[in-house]
Amino acid sequence: MDIPALSISLNQMKVQLQASTSVMKMAMTAASEQSIDLLQMLEANTKMMEQSVNPHIGRNIDIKL
Fold first, then answer.
1. Beta-carbon contacts of residue 50 (< 8 Å; ≥ 6 apart)
2. How many of the other CB atoms lie within 10 Å of CB of 53?
3. DSSP state, 56?
4. How many angstroms separate the CA atoms of 8 and 2, rounded?
5. Distance of CA 38 to CAs 11, 24, 54, Å?
6. pTM score, two decimals?
7. In this predicted structure, what is the pLDDT of residue 57?
8. How many whole angstroms separate alpha carbon 41 and alpha carbon 33?
9. What pLDDT, on a 0 to 100 scale, did the predictor assign at position 24?
10. CA–CA separation, 30 vs 61, rounded Å?
11. Phi, psi for 45 (deg, rounded to 5)
Protein backbone atom coordinates (compact mmCIF):
# COMPACT_ATOMS: atom_id res chain seq x y z
CA MET A 1 0.00 0.00 0.00
CA ASP A 2 1.40 3.35 -1.09
CA ILE A 3 0.57 5.72 1.80
CA PRO A 4 1.83 8.98 0.19
CA ALA A 5 -0.16 8.34 -2.99
CA LEU A 6 -3.26 7.52 -0.92
CA SER A 7 -2.82 10.71 1.10
CA ILE A 8 -2.51 12.81 -2.06
CA SER A 9 -5.57 11.15 -3.55
CA LEU A 10 -7.65 11.75 -0.42
CA ASN A 11 -6.59 15.40 -0.27
CA GLN A 12 -7.53 15.89 -3.92
CA MET A 13 -10.96 14.40 -3.28
CA LYS A 14 -11.37 16.68 -0.27
CA VAL A 15 -10.54 19.77 -2.36
CA GLN A 16 -12.94 18.65 -5.11
CA LEU A 17 -15.70 18.16 -2.56
CA GLN A 18 -15.10 21.61 -1.07
CA ALA A 19 -15.11 23.20 -4.52
CA SER A 20 -18.34 21.47 -5.56
CA THR A 21 -19.98 22.45 -2.26
CA SER A 22 -18.94 26.06 -2.79
CA VAL A 23 -20.34 26.08 -6.33
CA MET A 24 -23.59 24.53 -5.08
CA LYS A 25 -23.95 27.22 -2.40
CA MET A 26 -23.42 29.94 -5.02
CA ALA A 27 -26.04 28.35 -7.27
CA MET A 28 -28.53 28.09 -4.43
CA THR A 29 -27.98 31.75 -3.50
CA ALA A 30 -28.48 32.84 -7.10
CA ALA A 31 -31.64 30.75 -7.42
CA SER A 32 -33.01 32.20 -4.19
CA GLU A 33 -32.38 35.77 -5.34
CA GLN A 34 -33.97 35.07 -8.72
CA SER A 35 -37.08 33.58 -7.10
CA ILE A 36 -37.45 36.63 -4.85
CA ASP A 37 -37.14 38.93 -7.88
CA LEU A 38 -39.68 36.84 -9.78
CA LEU A 39 -42.19 37.04 -6.92
CA GLN A 40 -41.78 40.81 -6.74
CA MET A 41 -42.35 41.12 -10.48
CA LEU A 42 -45.46 38.95 -10.25
CA GLU A 43 -46.87 41.08 -7.44
CA ALA A 44 -46.26 44.26 -9.43
CA ASN A 45 -47.86 42.74 -12.54
CA THR A 46 -50.88 41.61 -10.53
CA LYS A 47 -51.41 45.13 -9.23
CA MET A 48 -51.08 46.59 -12.73
CA MET A 49 -53.55 44.04 -14.11
CA GLU A 50 -56.07 44.86 -11.37
CA GLN A 51 -55.73 48.56 -12.10
CA SER A 52 -56.18 48.05 -15.85
CA VAL A 53 -59.33 45.96 -15.38
CA ASN A 54 -60.87 48.16 -12.67
CA PRO A 55 -59.13 51.54 -12.84
CA HIS A 56 -61.77 53.29 -10.73
CA ILE A 57 -61.49 50.95 -7.72
CA GLY A 58 -59.39 52.21 -4.84
CA ARG A 59 -59.11 55.86 -5.87
CA ASN A 60 -61.96 57.36 -3.82
CA ILE A 61 -63.21 56.66 -0.33
CA ASP A 62 -66.76 57.60 0.69
CA ILE A 63 -67.03 58.28 4.41
CA LYS A 64 -70.33 59.07 6.17
CA LEU A 65 -70.48 59.96 9.82
1. 57
2. 8
3. T
4. 10
5. 41, 21, 24
6. 0.59
7. 72
8. 12
9. 97
10. 43
11. -65, -35
- Measured in degrees and rounded to the nearest 5, phi and psi for residue 57 equal -75, 130
Residue type, 40: Q
> Radius of gyration of the chain from Cα atoms?
28
Overall size of the chain counted in residues: 65
φ/ψ (deg, to 5) at 17: -65, -45
- E strands, 1-65, are none
Task: Give the Cα-Cα-Cα angle 46, 51, 55 (nearest 5 degrees).
Answer: 165
Q: Can you give the residue ranges of every domain in the chain?
A: 15-42
As a whole number of angstroms, the distance between CA 24 and CA 18 comes to 10
How do residues 12-62 score in pLDDT, each as one tens digit?
999 999 999 999 999 999 999 999 999 999 999 888 887 777 777 777 777
Helix (H, G, I), strand (E, B) or coil at 58: coil
